[in-house]
């Protein structure tokens, strides 16, 4: 690692245009340019200079060889002197040693560049606001970390040094050729300059084609990942053909973009190869005439041709680099576009307020005051994002008590949890934690106070233990086993050793729905946070296990529990029940009170909560 930022993190304040772009996840406005390339390569300049020096030394030893060959040819009298052969071999070896050293420095720098760029992108991805991540194609983001950075590494790191070294080769060749024959030199230089200009012109057209290709690759990755993640549903709905069609359709888009990029690549490479061939023939023809006229010796013509080859190499190189440059710029654009999205900051304004203690004057662990909320606009989202999801919600969640949130589907219950976790900020109003506005607190510290079991109880791929210790990194095996027992995931006589090492599969697909829920609850219990948020954690549990979870919640003691529940049995025991409807709090009280005063609650109790 270099320790130097490869890509600067935007530091704009929350209300800035950058923040607006963060909300929308908008792409960087302009395509990546040469300035961006120089900026991201800046930390590697020492290595690049070293590679350049080594390459130049290799070129210098290579450039001496034609002179030795010329004198050997012109002075040939039946045999070549051993010293000449020795000298030539020495030059060859030296040239090879420096070339190898240059390649090593370049290749290793390339790997380091890729690693650093990946590290920064991965770190940035983990800070992206939840709202942005939910609207992005995750597989496309992954392909930016993998394919795009590999593409960048190939061209940016080695290509630029090789181009610089080539300049040395060209200059040395021109100087040496000028010592041999000006006419042949003029012919070579004019041809090569024209060729380079043509290559640059065609090369510029590869950038948009490259961006299209890399973007199509990202979309393809998205389509395949989406299908693989829902294979049961796809099979069950007999829609494999349709989904294959979608993925193959994306592959066809990659093919189309690939054809366009390949056409340009082929044009450039062919043009370079033909130019060199034609130039070589022209030099041999004109050179032969000049040898016949006595203005040039055979040895000098041989040396000139060797220098020509040295000088022509950059054309092939430029052609190769330009052929891939478009894709590299496309990849760079895609990497920079993610970096342009402002990450979630731990604290909005320094200094952060210290984590407050519970005060007698503020008995609520969380309190929402006049909170209204709507999700950030997502142009391509199916959700009706212009709708207010919460409207003027004021509610206290008492410390050490269990509060239940109930309401019809879509009432905004999970959204309340999202605000408590600060995945989103309220559009209007304030959320307070122990009396302090959460915007003044460190997000990380706040989240450490809260254990959150999501609605669909997400479980990460890995072992049962990996999942358990997510929120409690230092938990011992005994603590893990204890947590598993609490949620009935272990029999009394099972020491848990084998189960802890069981793989749960991607998204926990090797577990049953109920096991997933109980594992997620065990994780939350193990974290031992003062606040427990449970979002419909009993929906997949049988009545025995449901009662067990209710008992756990009831015995939470000091813990403050907020539970979203669709089952009456979970709700009845709560100290307080908040009824939400269409984003508004319509009633709050105990089960008994609400049964008397709230028609919606009565209806829910009779129809939904009992279900
Ligand atoms: N990430 C999101 N982006 C945009 N809109 C969303 C998002 N999540 C939820 N919504 C919308 O917000 C509204 C409230 O959703 P929420 O999940 O909070 O309801 P809920 O009461 O928890 O529903 P359920 O009981 O069905 O889980 C819904 O209309 C939903 O479409």
From TrEMBL:
Where in the numbering of this chain does the ABC transmembrane type-1 domain appear? 49-327
TM annotation in the entry? 48-68, 80-99, 154-176, 182-202, 271-292, 304-325
Q: What are the entry keywords?
A: ATP-binding, Cell membrane, Membrane, Nucleotide-binding, Transmembrane, Transmembrane helix, Transport
Q: Where in the cell is it found?
A: Cell membrane
State any GO CC term.
plasma membrane
Instruction: Please state every residue range assigned to the domain named ABC transporter.
Output: 366-607
Q: Where is the composition biased (Low complexity)?
A: 9-27
Ranges for region Disordered: 1-29
Q: Does the keyword Ion transport apply?
A: no
Q: How does it sit in the membrane?
A: Multi-pass membrane protein
Please classify the protein's predominant subcellular localization into one broad category.
Answer: membrane
A GO molecular function annotation here is: ATP binding
Q: Which PANTHER family match?
A: ATP-BINDING CASSETTE SUB-FAMILY B MEMBER 10, MITOCHONDRIAL, ATP-DEPENDENT PERMEASE MDL1, MITOCHONDRIAL
Q: Family assignment?
A: Belongs to the ABC transporter superfamily. Lipid exporter (TC 3.A.1.106) family.
Under which name does UniProt file this protein? ABC transporter
Task: Provide the species name.
Answer: Cellulomonas gelida
């Amino acid at each position: 690692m270099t320790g130097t930022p490869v890509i600067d993190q935007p530091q704009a304040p929350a209300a800035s245009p950058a923040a607006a772009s963060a909300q929308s996840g908008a792409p960087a406005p302009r395509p990546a340019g040469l300035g961006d390339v120089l900026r991201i390569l800046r930390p590697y300049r020492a290595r690049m200079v070293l590679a350049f020096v080594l390459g130049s030394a290799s070129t210098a030893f290579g450039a001496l060889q034609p002179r030795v060959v010329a004198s050997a040819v012109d002075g040939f009298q039946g045999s070549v002197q051993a010293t000449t052969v020795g000298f030539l071999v020495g030059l060859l070896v030296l040239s090879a040693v420096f070339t190898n050293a240059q390649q090593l420095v370049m290749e290793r720098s390339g790997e380091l560049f890729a690693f650093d760029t990946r590290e920064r992108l991965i770190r940035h991805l983990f800070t992206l606001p939840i709202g942005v991540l939910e609207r992005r194609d995750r597989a496309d983001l992954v392909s930016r970390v993998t394919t795009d950075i590999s593409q960048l590494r190939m061209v940016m790191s080695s290509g630029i040094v090789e181009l610089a070294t080539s300049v040395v080769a060209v200059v040395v060749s021109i100087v040496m050729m000028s010592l041999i024959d000006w006419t042949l030199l003029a012919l070579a230089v004019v041809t090569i300059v024209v060729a380079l200009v043509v290559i640059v012109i065609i090369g510029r057209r590869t950038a948009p084609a490259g961006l299209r290709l890399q973007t199509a690759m990202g979309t393809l990755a998205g389509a395949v990942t989406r299908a693989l993640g829902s294979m049961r549903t796809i099979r069950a709905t007999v829609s494999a053909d349709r989904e294959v069609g979608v993925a193959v359709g994306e592959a066809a888009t990659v093919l189309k973009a690939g054809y366009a990029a390949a056409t340009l690549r082929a044009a450039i490479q062919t043009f370079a190869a033909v130019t060199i061939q034609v130039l070589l023939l022209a030099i041999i023809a004109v050179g032969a005439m000049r040898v016949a006229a006595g203005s040039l010796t055979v040895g000098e013509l041989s040396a000139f041709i060797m220098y020509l080859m040295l000088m022509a190499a950059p054309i092939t190189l430029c052609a190769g680099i330009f052929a891939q440059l478009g894709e590299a710029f496309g990849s760079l654009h895609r990497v920079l576009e993610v970096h342009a999205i402002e990450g979630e900051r731990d604290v909005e304004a320094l200094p952060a307020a210290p984590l407050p203690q519970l005060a007698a004057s503020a008995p609520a662990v969380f309190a929402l005051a006049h909170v209204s909320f709507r999700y950030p606009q997502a142009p391509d989202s199916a959700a009706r994002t212009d709708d207010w999801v919460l409207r003027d919600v004021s509610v206290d969640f008492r410390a050490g008590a269990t509060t239940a949130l109930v309401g019809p589907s879509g009432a905004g219950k999970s959204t309340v949890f999202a605000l408590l976790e600060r995945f989103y900020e309220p559009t209007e109003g304030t959320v307070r934690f122990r009396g302090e506005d959460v915007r003044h607190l460190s997000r990380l510290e706040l989240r450490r106070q809260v254990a959150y079991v999501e609605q669909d109880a997400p479980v990460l791929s890995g072992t049962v233990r990996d999942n358990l210790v997510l929120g409690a990194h230092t938990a011992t095996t005994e603590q893990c086993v204890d947590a598993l027992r609490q949620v009935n995931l272990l029999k009394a006589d099972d020491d848990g050793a084998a189960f802890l090492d069981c793989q749960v599969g991607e998204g926990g697909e090797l577990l049953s729905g109920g096991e997933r829920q109980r594992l997620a609850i065990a994780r939350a219990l193990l974290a031992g946070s003062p606040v427990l948020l449970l979002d419909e954690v009993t929906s997949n549990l049988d009545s025995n296990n449901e009662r067990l979870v209710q008992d756990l919640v009831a015995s939470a003691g000091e813990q403050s529990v907020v539970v979203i529940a669709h089952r009456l049995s979970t709700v009845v025991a709560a100290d307080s029940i908040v009824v939400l409807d269409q984003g508004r709090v319509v009633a709050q009280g105990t089960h008994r009170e609400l049964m008397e005063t709230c028609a919606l609650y009565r209806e829910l109790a009779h129809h939904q909560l009992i279900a």
